[in-house]
Amino acid sequence: MKNITSLDHQIYTCIFNIFPSGPFEKEINLNVYVPPEVSVFPDVTPVVGDSEVILVSCIATSRPASEVTWNLGDLNSSLKIKTDISAGPNDYYTVSSRLIGVPSKELNEQNVQCVVNHTSLKKEIVLNYALVIHYPPQIVYITSVNPPTTHQEFLCIAVANPKPTLYIWSRENKALTGRVDFDRLEIQLNSDSNGLYKCNASNQYGNGVGTLQMQFSTDISPDCTTCWILFTTLIVLNVAAFFVWRFNLCSKQIFDLREGSWPAVRVRVSTNSPTHNREPNSTDSS
């Protein structure tokens, strides 16, 4: 037989006659192996909780049945495996292997592998899968986006899966006067900005709240602070330049003295001095 397909998986009867004995027949069972079709998926996306649920399933359909196992790495002790085999038409078999465990935030994005072996395969099939666990915002905090000037922008960050779809900004005991853009808040820095700010982040499973205590000093405004910094820097640069100039001048004078190039010192004697007007006496002449 040539060009065999999965439909050729049948029992064939070979009949022949031998004279004078009569007809003879022989049944031939033709087994056509069909490689497995494998898929890995969650039945329902698990949500963080306290009860065991199916985290992910690995399904392999083939003829004959496949062998399905898991590589779990460090998760071996925390997850269970349940495998079922069901027969279908034309000797097809479906092997369903499921990972069972208590869904937690720590399991989210952990990698597992479904491994499938079959008679028709020269090499096993390995499918990687990152576990998906949904949970409400569990950690929410507010962080600054830019250095403070006259305004400051803040970002609300929430650890959740899926990401929050709603952010609600508020201010304790006062009306919120800043500009809100989804997960961002921009406020003007002045004495009226002081207070406790809150960000309420939520997805379809719940919500979480982050807070920020804002305390702005009015002694020196942000613009004035910049001016003082520039003024101080200018003074330091001028002082440094003066010392460099003095150092170079002293170095040049020392060098000139060593080389003998320092200008000679001349002393002029006044013509009115007593020594100059003294007349020579007889003793001197002799």
Automatic annotation (TrEMBL):
InterPro entries: CD80_C2-set, Ig-like_dom, Ig-like_dom_sf, Ig-like_fold, Nectin/Nectin-like. Its main location: membrane. One of its GO terms (biological process) is heterophilic cell-cell adhesion via plasma membrane cell adhesion molecules. The keyword Transmembrane applies. Keywords: Cell adhesion, Disulfide bond, Glycoprotein, Membrane, Repeat, Signal, Transmembrane, Transmembrane helix. Residues 36-126, 137-217 form the Ig-like domain. The keyword Glycoprotein applies. One of its GO terms (cellular component) is membrane. It is found in: Membrane. Gene3D superfamilies: Immunoglobulins. It holds the Pfam family C2-set_2. The chain crosses the membrane at residues 228-249. PANTHER family: NECTIN-1 ISOFORM X1-RELATED (PTHR23277:SF106), NECTIN-RELATED (PTHR23277). Belongs to the nectin family. This is Nectin-4-like. It comes from Astyanax mexicanus (Blind cave fish).
